[in-house]
Write a structure and sequence with these properties.
Blueprint lengths: L1 H28 L4 H12 L4 H14 L17 H26 L3 E2 L2 E2 L1 H12 L5 H29 L4 H31 L8 H28 L4 H28 L2 H4 L5 H5 L4 H9 L2 H10 L7 H13 L2 H20 L6 H15 L4
Antiparallel strand pairs: 1-2
Helix pairs in contact: 1-2, 1-4, 3-4, 3-8, 3-16, 4-6, 4-8, 5-6, 6-7, 7-8, 8-9, 9-15, 12-13, 12-14, 12-15, 15-16
Length: about 375
C-alpha cells in the first residue's frame, strides 16, 4: 500500500540520519569504530519494519479519532508525527540489538541472508590475520554492537518523546518501552532455559511453558508493545490502549507461531537462514510441545535425541520434519494461528479507534501471519 511504503521510507530516512550522526561521533573517537556503524547499517537495511508500522498505526488509531476525518493525509502535518517516526525508528534499532544478542546465544551463522554479526566480526579477524581467537573477538565485538544498539534505541526514543506535545503521554510511552525491554529480556532467558531444563518440567507443563516463551520473547514486543507505545504517545484512554493490546497480543502470538513454523520448515532461499535452523538450535517451541504430546514414545525419543544437535545432517533434518508433520502439530499450529488472528480481529470490532487505522491493522494482521519469511 502507498501509505505503508511512505511510512517505511520515513522510518528508513530517520534511521540513516541517526546512524550518520553516530558515525561522526564514533569517528571522533577512533576510525576503527566504523565497524559498528557499518554493521548496524547492514543489519538495519533488512527487515519489514513491522514494529515501526504497528507503532505508527497505534498512534494513528488514537490521534485519528480527534480529527475531522481520520484519513492518513490529514495527519501528515500533525505536530507529533516526527516524534512518532523517531519512536518507530527506535523500535527498529531495539529489534536489531535483540537480533544481534539472539544470534550469539543461538550460535546462528546467518541473519537476513548475511553472516550474523558475530560471524561477520569473526571473519574480519580471520581475514586480517590478527592475533588471538577469531571466535572470541567476533563474539565480544557483537556483544558490544548489541549494547550500542540498545543504548542508541533509548537515545532515539528519548529524542522523540522530548518533543511530544503532551509530557504525560511521553512519560506513559517511556514506561511502556521500559516494560517491553524487561519482558523481552526475561523472555529470551525463558527461551534458553527451555532448551536446557525442559526435562525438569512435567510433560503437561511443556506446552504452557512454550506458550509463555512465545508471549514474552516475541508476541508482546513485536506487536502489542509497539501498538501500545504509539497509542500512549497519542494520549490514548485506558479503553483505547486496552483495545490495542487486545488486538496486539493474540496477533503477536500468531506472528511468532508463523515464525516458529518457518524456523522448522522454511525455505533457506526465502528466509535467509538454513533449513531447520530451530531444530539445530534445540528450540522447545509450541510446535515441538504439540508434536511430543501426539507422538508415540519411540518418535518422542527420536525428537529428544536429535533436537539441539548443531551438526544435524540434511537427512536428519528431513527425518525430524517428517516426524513433526506426521504428529499433526503443523495443522494444530495453523489452527492456533487462525484462532489467534480471529481473536485479534474481534478486538477491533467497535473499538474506539480511528476507522482508517482499524482497516490498516486488519491488513497488517494478514501480512504478518501469512508471510513466507
Amino acid at each position: 500500500m502507498p501509505e505503508r511504503t511512505r511510512l517505511v521510507d520515513l522510518v528508513n530516512a530517520r534511521l540513516e540520519a541517526f546512524l550518520d550522526e553516530r558515525a561522526g561521533q564514533l569517528e571522533a573517537v577512533a576510525p576503527d569504530l566504523e565497524v559498528f556503524t557499518d554493521a548496524a547499517r547492514d543489519l538495519l537495511r533488512g527487515g519489514k519494519r513491522f514494529r515501526a508500522l504497528f507503532c505508527y498505526w497505534g498512534w494513528h488509531a488514537v490521534a485519528g479519532t480527534v480529527r475531522a476525518d481520520d484519513l492518513l493525509a490529514e495527519l501528515d502535518t500533525h505536530t507529533d508525527l516526527p516524534s512518532v517516526i523517531e519512536a518507530a525508528a527506535a523500535l527498529e534499532i531495539f529489534h536489531a540489538a535483540a537480533l544481534v544478542h539472539d544470534d550469539i546465544m543461538d550460535n546462528s551463522d546467518t541473519r537476513r541472508g548475511m553472516p550474523a554479526a558475530h560471524r561477520r566480526f569473526e571473519a574480519d579477524h580471520a581475514r586480517r590475520e590478527w592475533t588471538g581467537s577469531a571466535r572470541t573477538y567476533g563474539t565480544a565485538t557483537a556483544l558490544l554492537l548489541g549494547d550500542l544498539l540498545l543504548g542508541w534505541s533509548d537515545e532515539l526514543l528519548d529524542a522523540g518523546l522530548s518533543r511530544l506535545s503532551d509530557p504525560r503521554s511521553a512519560r506513559a510511552a517511556r514506561g511502556e518501552f521500559q516494560t517491553m525491554r524487561t519482558e523481552v529480556t526475561v523472555g529470551q532467558y525463558l527461551d534458553i532455559l527451555e532448551e536446557v531444563a525442559w526435562r525438569d518440567a512435567d510433560e503437561a507443563d511443556l506446552l504452557p511453558r512454550a506458550h509463555r516463551v512465545v508471549t514474552y520473547k516475541s508476541a508482546k514486543y513485536s506487536i502489542e508493545a509497539p501498538l501500545a507505545l504509539g497509542g500512549l504517545m497519542a494520549g490514548g484512554s485506558l479503553e483505547q490502549v486496552a483495545a490495542l493490546r487486545a488486538f496486539g497480543l493474540p496477533l503477536g502470538v500468531a506472528f511468532q507461531l508463523r515464525d516458529d513454523l518457518l524456523g522448522v520448515f522454511g525455505d533457506p532461499a526465502i528466509t535467509g537462514k538454513p533449513a531447520g535452523d530451530d531444530l539445530r538450535e534445540g528450540k522447545r517451541t509450541v510446535i515441538i510441545a504439540l508434536a511430543r504430546a501426539a507422538l508415540p514414545a519411540g518418535a518422542v525419543a527420536l525428537i529428544d535425541e536429535l533436537l539441539g544437535d548443531p551438526d544435524l545432517s540434511e537427512h536428519q533434518i528431513a527425518t525430524l520434519q517428517a516426524t513433526i508433520r506426521d504428529s499433526g502439530a503443523v495443522e494444530t499450529t495453523e489452527r492456533i494461528i487462525e484462532r489467534s488472528v480471529q481473536e485479534a480481529l474481534a478486538a477491533l470490532e467497535d473499538a474506539p479507534l480511528s476507522r482508517s487505522a482499524r482497516a490498516e491493522l486488519v491488513g497488517l494482521s494478514d501480512l504478518v501471519t501469512r508471510r513466507a519469511h
